[in-house]
Amino acid sequence: MQRATALTVHTTGALIVGYLVALAWWGIRLTAHTLRLAFPQPGLALRRLTDRHSNEKTEEAVSGRSRNHALSAAV
Question: Is the pTM here over 0.70, yes or no?
Answer without folding.
Answer: no
